[in-house]
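Hello, quick one for you while I still have it in my head. A protein chain has come my way and I'm curious about its shape. Can you walk me through what the tokens say about the fold? No rush at all, and the record is pasted right below.
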Amino acid sequence: MSGPYAQRPLGRDAMTKIAFIGLGVMGFPMAGHLAAAGHDVTVYNRTSAKADDWVEQHGGAMAASPREAAAGAEIVFTCVGNDDDLRSVTLGQDGAFAGMAEGTLFVDHTTVSAHIARDLAEKLEEQGCHGIDAPVSGGQAGAENGKLAIMCGGSDAAMDRARPVMDAYAARIVHVGGPGAGQTTKMVNQICIAGVLSGLSEAVRFAQSADVDLAKVKEAISGGAAQSWQMDNRWDTMAAGEFDFGFAIDWMRKDLGLALDEARRNGSSLPNAALVDQYYAEVQAMGGNRQDTSALIRRLRKGGDKD
């Protein structure tokens, strides 16, 4: 890699000049971990009040635009909402790419399409920069606790530079392949979660209808082949009808939509994911847009419930 930052060692033991763009429920604590690790962090957020709050809590600085945040940064991180949001903060006159010098590393933690990840990687290469698509799994709790799983697409050289910095908020970092591979892996993750939650929803409702001790049922089956993270962490709250936390159904439907779009591109078939996506649409119609994905169970009646 050429440019002013090509040979600089990055990581916990070397202060890195960082721009972090997007301070939502994930980005806010992730940027905080970078500051706590000793890096020089400048933040940008579309709603400036969040950037003010972040600087008050963590120090650093805030910028008036993505371009201003990226100017002079060695690594630019983004964590925004969707493809359109990512384009708005990276491209154009005030976008981050306009402020990035040759050799700057770009790391995107947004869950977006593999198509835009590959497109941005090409644009970065044209201006002498490297990029990594690095969506995360672990939710708000994982971000706050610095225990996220990060699935990455990009070059070996870019990963070597990014990994020691991302360690500040990661429990696991896996380099899957080239540009777009991280986003594709996140789609695989969401497809798996959708299938597990569909089965878990039916299992909990079945047990409730059978009038058996749900705690004992969970104890009996959670040590075997049926065990999953969702069972360990969502069985009890699903049984209690508690859903006002966690990963929102609106976000899950966005992610499943990305997977279904990519499946049309690569010729794969996702009948179960498509079905669960429609199930989630039913829960949205019931007012569950911002409820945790485990609220999928709401669409299933317990035995004995009246229509």
Remarks:
- Residues 222 and 228 are 8 Å apart (CA to CA).
- Residues 181-209 form the longest helix (29 residues).
- Confidence is low (pLDDT under 50) at residues 1-12.
- The longest strand covers residues 170-177.
